[in-house]
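Schema walkthrough. Field components (list of strings):
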Amino acid sequence: MSIEKRRANLQNAKDKNWDIIVVGGGITGAGVAREAIRRGLSVLLLEQKDFAWGTSSRSSKMVHGGLRYLAMGDRKLTKESLLERERLLKEAPGLVERMGYYFLLPKSWKPWRLVMKILLASYDRIAGIRNHKICNIDELGQTFTSLARADISGAAYYTDAVTDDSRLVYRVLQEAEADGAALLNYCKVDSSRVLDNGLQSIEVVDERAKNTFCCTAKVIVNSTGAWADQLRQARIEEQRVRPLKGSHIVLKKGVLPIENAISCQHPEDKRSVFVFPWEGHSVIGTTDLDHDDSLDEEARISSEELDYLLAIVRHHFPAEAISVNDIVSTWSGVRPVIAGDKQFARAQEAEQNEKGKSKKKPSKERRDHAVWDNEGLISAAGGKLTTFRVMALDVLEKAAPYLEGWAFERDEAPVFRRVTQEADNALPLNGDQRDYLSACYGFRFKDFLSSAKSTELESLAEQKYCLAQLRWALREEWVEHLDDLLLRRTRLGLLLPNGAEQLFDACKLICQQELSWSDEHWSDELERYQAIWARSYSVPA
Ligand SMILES: Cc1cc2nc3c(=O)[nH]c(=O)nc-3n(C[C@H](O)[C@H](O)[C@H](O)COP(=O)(O)OP(=O)(O)OC[C@H]3O[C@@H](n4cnc5c(N)ncnc54)[C@H](O)[C@@H]3O)c2cc1C
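Field assembly_structure (string):
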């Protein structure tokens, strides 16, 4: 975002009485902003760090129905997610892509084959597709040549989808902004209160200008994910979010190359962990643990989690002899899982401890979302990346009583505008590149092409990104820091060694050209980025 545009948004933020102020720029906040602005409400969205900085850039990137939820008997949640998955596949081709999943069947599970067959048939039927089968061990061996066969009898094959989670957030924000939503990152909401006239007032800290200002609205939407209790607690003393950490490791390009996801049982605790292809690399994850660290620090993988994730590939793919040296990066996210209120949870825990039982296992916690209204502070947490549209609609339904003269309607209008892929033969783009870039930029694809220099379309370091994308992000995509550019607008910092250090010179030049960074500013940004990368995205010692 240009300095002028940010300045205008800041001024507007202070001057205007908004219908809705959305706090939190992850997928939930982006979805609420998108659905609210489309329905004619005025919307301001504030994010304390970068858009998608929270969990929405650190998920397992799966747009899925959740076979597990169906197996647990939660048909409603599965149906909701499957219908959203199919909608996203249709609306955002290339950004959300169907992917094959192989669920390994241990030999000891023989009687379960029939159960899996019934489960998959039901999973597909709900989604309105037919794309599943049970594979025997030989078929499986052809797809995963280095898979250890000793304990496995075959696999249940089905399809779900995969995405780039932060780009999904930017596409949704881009839609909201195009319809008139004002977006500000690096603006933290410190407190909220109800004024005598019934309006909501919030205090905001602008990290960039290093000052504080107030804004007012009819409704505040608290879509701060794992942080949701912090804003709520000024109004009600209860804790509803149980933060659960999940970590992933990214293997170097060419190590354990796979084209489909595989769900493996961990040899120690029998949990299912995925090995899946993402951005041309293989990723292993996730763990699922209580997160007791401060939410002000970016979550990071522990060495125990690293060992746990490596153990799974060593067990199922021993011939690959994968070690720490094969890892290019890691990431960890914090899942805002809904639990009972704190007093209730404590009482329950004490009771369970008395009976000799332990706290509910993280992986057994429910994954659906909840929406609470505390005098016009509407909080939404839990849920999934996949179901952001449904969450947004539930939030707006709860907000409606505070928006006099406005009626909520639950419609099925698309989230994304149609993308037209007009041919521009002057640019040296092949079909795959065209599909990929149009998926990244949606209805702005044509603008991207007109601004791109043909010399900057070549792929960078054998990744699918190109210099023109860095330039576009700096001009158009609200970049404030180098980590915004390398960890979220692009994923180069996760895919290239040492946080993409081979591209630092190119980044310096382009940041200086587009954002007028001085040498000193560049050095500060580089130092900041390397510290963040070393702390939260590298391999722990
Ligand atoms: C390891 C892991 C794997 C997952 N895998 C999947 C998956 O494969 N598929 C799927 O569908 N879902 C998955 N999920 C769930 C999904 O990622 C989350 O449900 C979703 O990203 C939550 O989005 P959110 O917008 O609610 O929260 P966030 O993305 O965390 O956004 C909240 C934002 O609020 C901001 N914020 C906090 N406090 C303030 C404040 N005071 N002022 C301003 N801003 C503030 C934060 O900086 C943050 O950016 C996974 C989650 C985890 C942790």
